[in-house]
Input
Amino acid sequence: MNIRVPVAAARSGSSITTRRLSKTFNGTTVLQLTDLEISPGQILVLLGPSGCGKTTLLRLIAGLEQPDGPDMIRFDGEDVSGVPIEKRNVGMVFQSYALFPNMTVAENVAYGLKIRKIDRAQREAETCRLLALVGLEEYADRRISAISGGQRQRTALARALAIKPRVLLLDEPLAALDAVLRERLRVEISLLLREFGITAVYVTHDQAEAMAIGDRIAVMQKGRITQIDVPREIYHRPANDFVADFVGTMNRIAGRVENGVLNIQGEETMARLNVGGPDRATTLCFRPEAARLASGGGAISARVAAATFFGATQRLVADVSPECRLQLDLPSNLSFTPGQILAFDVDPDAILEFRAEA
Amino acid sequence: MRRQWTSVAGIVITALLTLFLVVPVLLSVYAGLTVNYARGMSAGFTFDWVRQVWGLYSDTVWRSLAVALLTLALTLLIGVPGAYALVRRGGRFARAVEEIVTLPVAVPGLALALALILSYGGAGAFRQSTLFVVVGHLLFTLPFMMRSVIAVLETIDWHTLDEGAASLGSPAWRRFVDVILPNVRPGIVAGALTVVTLSIGEFNLTWMMHTPMTKTLPVGLADAYASMRLEIASAYTLIFLIMVIPLLIGVQLVANLTEKRTQS
Output
């Protein structure tokens, strides 16, 4: 059931700007002063652990929460801070679908058009078009209780798009689905949003989902945006420890750099990383896939603790010292046994060093 | 087909319990149709008693119906939006209001009636109208409607439904009518059945509040038991049953009809 995309969909998004946007609940600040620019048609993913303020930011943009002050949110330059959600013309997709159980699939999709007093013929045509777009024509007359979770979320998406919203807001839309369905719908949503050319804000705590869907990703932590950038930069150039850990796995080697080299000596293992710069205590980081097997003596040698086979690759857990355990992704055609000493190099471009944060 | 002994026992116990409850009612109906209850069937059957009761008390029947329907209308009008408002508001205040609304159920009907008479006894026209009885019934039945609706509201995700409708541009009152009401319908139906049956059978409060001109059926029944022969009182019971059973079936039918309409 693939989503059929219209050949030349009209670009229909507004830009979203927030200026010093903040939200305080009963004296607790859940969103710190946030400046955000989302250009028309762009998909921004808000990524972060629960309680980081990503849902609050989304609900503020939606108009489901009131910001702390006036003129903090603008659509196409127009201040919408005081406009309630029902007048803001935003499409909203909820984690729990929020479909109306007393209506059929088609009635759900048509509801927003009915509110807008679109005449019946046009309403039905538009509903049909959207249901076809999400592959649910045959289910038009089904009740919500008679369709699956994936079909429900497709209905919710069609319903939100039917009103031609200025921006589309999605609050963890796939979190309630199982893994296989989640992956498939992720691709479909990504295609659909791009074809509609709609400005979208997408909240998730799943980094794979964020990478797949976002034009840009804003990683949030404790009520503020820590880093906002394209997925590639977020992954390869994380701004700090938190982002590095939240987006994928990161290896850490802590030690002293002397004469430009960080040196760790284990019993039969060791690490020698040549990073240059002044003498300092530091932590060097690299992703598991930055490891390359060395033919001779590599920069790092570590004792294999375990290997997990993934098909295309395998993930090795290996120890340089009791305090320094590394995870390495290596080709899956090689066989390793626990206890064996493994020598490898690390792509020098992939080594990151974070300054200790205040 | 072999039946389990447990299911046989179940049927037997259910049948016995049903008999235990139904026999007195049937006996009463029987008494209302006999010429002379003391002499039993040999004296023959008659509709005279029923006719006499109708002549004496038909106004109480109509009044009871009117009071019940008016009470129902008011509990729907006040109770359903009220229940939604309370659940929406939440917190300690809402719980306090719910407790206060429920209070008239716990307070003896006589005390409640006395309180109403003390408060509004001076308002002559109101005191003497059937409306006064309706107000008493409203106080007594409102918590049943509200509790029933609140119970259903607590099982549905009304908050997200409301937000979903709002995001589609629906103003507050339409969200209530289009989305909240249809989804709490089972609670409204259950509440309506309770309100109607409670109102029609209510005696305590009504007995205290009624005037000779505003007698309801149960008050008339008490009258008949106290001052007429057994056969008349029993015939009265028969009329009560004839009235209340179709009424309950009717409410259920209306409920089913609206369900079909919202589902089609």
Chain B has two domains: 1-46, 57-263. Chain B touches chain A through 22 residues (CB under 8 Å).
